[in-house]
Amino acid sequence: MIRRYSGRQGDALEKIRVLSVASGAAPELRDVIRTASDAERFQVTLLDQDKIALHEAGAHIREVESRLGVRIGIEYLNHSVRTMLMAPQLKDGLGRFDLIYSMGLFDYLTPRVAAALLGKLIQLLRPGGEMIVGNFHVSSPSRYYMEYWLDWVLFYRTEAEFLSLLDNSPAKDRARTFFEDSGCQMFMQIEN
Ligand SMILES: C[S@@+](CC[C@H](N)C(=O)[O-])C[C@H]1O[C@@H](n2cnc3c(N)ncnc32)[C@H](O)[C@@H]1O
């Protein structure tokens, strides 16, 4: 079972709880937590199967903490999302979140696994919470270079294919897709 560990919990329940799934080193946190009051507002959980990436995330966080002179509420979960899929009551171990996001993971997941993971993650949203998940769009021009020269094959999806991962979920009515400026990266947003 996945359980929280190593976090400085404090008054976590009053904070905005954020979960990054397949977080990598989460460099974006340096852009989000820019002041001491930002640091006080967030309780962040980073989940990744790669311990080294989580160590790197810890180094970024310590740098922000020392710059701002505050402690940041953060916990590191060194797990595969496949562990999440097997957990019958994930929220008992992890609690619920106001924001869940995942970038650079769903492109690697088969439709079946991606749909199952989405279903699990939706259960972790607090009422009023929001989830944002990224996936390369089929029209991404770098696709051919990546596949041909790098043998880097991903699951590129159309908007309909991406949303169809929610075909068996009531959350489909609350989901939409949007793009970043280049149009390569597609996002699915689900409001709870
Ligand atoms: C392309 S990186 C994206 C990192 C970060 N989200 C970002 O956008 O910069 C993919 C990350 O997914 C993690 N990952 C891949 N498969 C995973 C799995 N089954 N469970 C947990 N993490 C996984 C890798 O360890 C890696 O850190």
Task: Outline the structure in words.
By secondary structure, the chain is of the alpha/beta class. The chain has two domains: 1-95, no CATH class; 104-192, Vaccinia Virus protein VP39 (Rossmann fold, 3-Layer(aba) Sandwich), CATH 3.40.50.150. 34% of the residues lie in helices and 26% in strands. The chain has eight helices and seven strands, in the order E-H-H-E-H-E-H-H-E-H-E-H-H-E-E. It has helices at 28-32, 36-41, 51-68, 81-86, 90-94, 111-122, 142-150, 159-163, and strands at 16-21, 42-48, 73-78, 97-102, 125-136, 175-179, 185-191. Strand 2, helix 3 and strand 3 (73-78) form a beta-alpha-beta unit. It is globular. It binds S-adenosylmethionine.
Features of this protein?
192 residues; alpha/beta; 2 domains; 34% helix; disordered N terminus; binds S-adenosylmethionine
Radius of gyration: 17 Å
How many distinct folded domains?
A: 2
Span of the ends, CA to CA: 25 Å
For the secondary structure, the number of strands is 7
Give the ligands present: S-adenosylmethionine
Structural class: alpha/beta
SSE topology string? EHHEHEHHEHEHHEE
Low-confidence segments: 1-13
SS strand fraction: 25-35%
Biggest sheet strand order reads 3-2-1-4-5-7-6
Number of distinct helices: 8
Described by strand count, sense and barrel closure, the largest sheet is: 7 strands, mixed
Mean pLDDT: 91
Shape: globular
Helix content: 25-40%
Task: Give a concise summary.
The chain is α/β, with parallel strands linked by helices and 192 residues long. The chain is built from 8 helices and 7 strands.
